[in-house]
Design a protein that fits this description.
Strand order of the largest sheet: 5-4-6-7
Oligomer: single chain
Distance between the termini: 16 Å
Structural class: alpha+beta
Shape: elongated
Number of domains: 2
Strand content: 15-25%
Radius of gyration: 24 Å
Largest sheet: 4 strands, antiparallel
Length: 340
């Protein structure tokens, strides 16, 4: 890891924060909501300049950011305030940051996919010598794998993800065979040594990619990134993954810097994953996050009246305090891993 790769990692992380906050900024401007402050980073401001009604700030710590709008947590519903904007615009403003992260993540993946002329698809071309699960009631050549234990297969790389989610070595696999979908039960599949390599023994077809195919590959890869976030959250809730295995901004920057040193393509792929990760996490219904604020908009839509802004503000303040404590914890874990 070099100084250049560390700087590149910090810039990449900062870029994703700017993209997120810029989404809020543009949606607010489109809705006629005043943006009072737009800052990148946290802590004291080291640079700032006011353009129009907005004070743009660059803060000391290169993590985090905010787009501060007039009337965020107040009862003031005057024109130009967030509270005074129509409910549809408010929902769009709150979701716009995550939507921008999804868009940027997809565009980065697309730029990496565009040079590819061909790609493997989840259609079985052949089996490795000694592969056990073949026959009418098992896997056959030409089968397109659709689901593994309910997990939807979009790309050939999803096969290993679908198989790794199970606790057993037999699976329920849905395949498309001769134009019909078949459900195969108790299909035995586990890694074994084939041709000197530890793998599942499935060889997949490779197809040429046109423009539509490349767009599809990029879309599927982006969906996979979002699904991986949900899988990770599920593993956290069920205890398969411990809190000490989570990473914060310091850990993410460290991984970005190490990845940049080994492969720039992997680096940009990781940036795309982090961008989509930020989008998913920000939409979780947690107080202080965009998803938590969207939850209050939904409550207002159903109840036909808003939760008093004062109480909503208290809830978001409490959520922010908990998030800060959590960030402090994961940052300490990141530092301990780095020095260890």
């Amino acid at each position: 890891m070099t100084i250049a790769t560390v700087i590149l990692a910090i810039l990449a992380f900062g870029f994703l924060i700017i993209v997120h906050e810029f989404g809020h900024f543009m949606a607010a401007k489109a809705a006629g909501v005043r943006v009072l402050e737009f800052w990148v980073g946290m802590g004291p401001a080291i640079l700032h300049h006011k353009f129009g009604e907005t004070d743009f700030k660059l803060c000391l710590l290169p993590f985090g950011g905010a787009c501060v709008m007039d009337g965020e947590d107040s009862e003031d519903e005057a024109p130009g305030t967030l509270s005074g904007a129509p409910i549809g615009w408010r929902a769009l403003i709150l979701a716009a940051g995550a939507l921008m992260n999804f868009l940027i993540g997809f565009l980065i993946v697309l730029l990496l996919v565009l040079p590819q002329k061909e790609a493997a698809i989840p259609v079985i071309e052949s089996f490795a010598d000694g592969f056990p699960s073949q026959g009418e009631s098992m896997l056959m050549e030409g089968d397109r794998i659709v689901r593994i234990d309910g997990f939807r297969i979009l790309l050939s790389s999803d096969i290993s993800t679908g198989l790794s989610r199970g606790d057993d070595t037999t699976y329920e696999i849905v395949v498309e065979r001769d134009g019909k979908k078949l459900t195969l039960t108790d299909v035995p599949l586990e890694p074994a040594e084939y041709d000197g390599t530890l793998r599942y023994g499935l060889n997949f077809e490779v197809t040429e990619l046109g423009i539509a195919g490349r767009l599809q590959q990029a879309a599927y890869k982006s969906i996979d990134f979002a699904r991986l976030v949900w899988i990770s959250l599920g593993n956290l809730v069920t205890g398969k993954v411990g809190m000490d295995q989570m990473s914060g901004p310091v850990g993410v920057t460290d991984v970005l810097a190490q990845t940049a040193q080994s492969s720039m393509q992997s680096f940009f792929l990781l940036v795309a994953f982090i961008s989509i990760n930020l989008g998913v996490m920000n939409l979780l219904p947690i107080p202080a996050l965009d998803g938590g604020r969207l939850l209050f908009v939904l409550i207002e839509l159903v109840a036909r009246r808003p939760v008093p802004r004062k109480y909503e503000g208290y809830i978001h303040l409490g959520g922010f305090a908990v998030l800060m404590l959590f960030m402090l914890y994961v940052t300490c874990q990141d530092i301990l891993r780095m020095v260890g």
